Amino acid sequence: MADVMTTEQRSRCMAAIKGKDTNPELIVRKYLFSRGLRFRVQVRKLLGNPDIVLPKYKTVIFVNGCFWHGHEDCRYFRLPKSNVEFWKEKIERNVARDVRNEAELKALGWRIIRVWECEIKTVAQREEYLKHLYDRIVNPTQSYLMETDIDKPSIAAEPESEQSYGNNNHS
Ligand SMILES: [Zn+2]
């Protein structure tokens, strides 16, 4: 068969391939998996539907898009020029919900790590960042822990067994 793809099909195909590689959540999952960590994904039984759940380390990871989760002082977070009020309110609601969810998860004994899309945007920064992330997960008592990770879980909360490696519909 000759090359039958139209230009449009080809570009859609390339976009799909590219999208796969640049999906921040997949990048994190792939890396942690390659380092031997096993986890659950998109756990609906936990508040906020965490992207990655590592029961062994009592850790949940949220991989956040900078726009939807209103990453402060981030160059990738820019409100659209039209409907500013609408977007502003929407993002503020998302941020408030994230804060609430995190507080409740912490109260249940989970350690929360937030990964921002911009932190793994380029291949150059990605490698170092992911190594560091792995260390943060497996050595929770090390002094290089930052912000939210300092609170160590006091109560062990085991999520219900759920083997869903299905893909996401993350907003
Ligand atoms: Zn960001």
UniProtKB/TrEMBL annotation:
GO biological process, any: mismatch repair
UniProt superkingdom: Bacteria
Keyword field: DNA damage, DNA repair, Endonuclease, Hydrolase, Nuclease
One Gene Ontology term of the molecular function aspect: hydrolase activity
Keyword Endoplasmic reticulum: no
Pfam families: Vsr
Entry's family note: Belongs to the Vsr family.
Protein name: DNA mismatch endonuclease Vsr
Organism encoding this protein: Duncaniella freteri
